[in-house]
């Protein structure tokens, strides 16, 4: 039996209400990990460090878990299998991308800005266009279907970032 979506569940799957922002709710849902990453870098926590990685892993776990736990209830509440109000999947996916930034790509403030911008734009574009097999993962039932396509897209964005880091000459570390 599927229970109605609780207020706590709604806060989790909408990333504290960002899923109600328009236009492009998925873009709004992708922003919190980027902002948190920028703040950590600004206070001197390196992207290669364990604290940065742990924070991003916790975001993936919390928001990915929210999709799995509340996905069916959110679908019933909002009347769609992958409602636009549910952006916890974008939050989790973006955090996954940031957890695997290429080494050296945040070594200077300007390089960090470019890297975070490329991470954000590549994730969002890939999430919009959903190349195969990410598009097929949307068909998985329940909260897993909401989440898995975004995790696949995150892997694609990680690859984009690593290829870009190989192509672009990075400053000596």
Amount of helix: 55-70%
State Rg: 16 Å
- Number of H/I helices: 7
Strand portion, in percent?
Answer: under 5%
Global geometry: globular
The major β-sheet equals: none
Number of separate structural domains: 1
Which class of secondary structure composition applies to the elements?
mainly alpha
What brief labels describe this structure?
173 residues, 68% helix, globular
Explain this structure to me?
68% of the residues lie in helices and 0% in strands. It has one domain (10-166). α3 packs antiparallel against α4 (88-99) and α3 (50-78) runs antiparallel to α7 (142-167). The protein has 173 residues and is mostly helical. It contains seven helices and no strands. The model has no long low-confidence stretch (mean pLDDT 88). The chain has helices at 7-13, 25-42, 50-78, 88-99, 109-129, 134-137, 142-167.
């Amino acid at each position: 039996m599927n229970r109605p979506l609780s207020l706590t569940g709604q806060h989790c799957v909408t990333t504290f209400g960002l899923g109600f922002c328009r236009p492009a709710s998925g873009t709004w849902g992708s922003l919190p990990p980027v902002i948190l990453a920028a703040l950590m870098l600004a206070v001197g926590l390196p992207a290669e460090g364990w604290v940065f990685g742990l924070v991003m892993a916790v975001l993936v776990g919390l928001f990915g878990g929210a999709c799995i736990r509340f996905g069916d209830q959110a679908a019933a509440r909002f009347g769609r299998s992958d409602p636009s109000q549910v952006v916890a999947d974008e939050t989790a996916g973006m955090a996954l991308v940031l957890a695997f930034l290429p080494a050296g790509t945040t070594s200077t403030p300007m390089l960090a800005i470019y890297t975070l911008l490329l991470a954000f734009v590549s994730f969002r574009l890939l999430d919009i266009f959903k190349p195969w097999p990410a598009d097929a993962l949307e068909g998985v039932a329940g909260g897993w279907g909401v989440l898995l396509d975004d995790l696949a897209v995150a892997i694609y964005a990680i690859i984009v970032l690593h290829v870009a880091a190989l192509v672009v000459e990075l400053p000596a570390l």
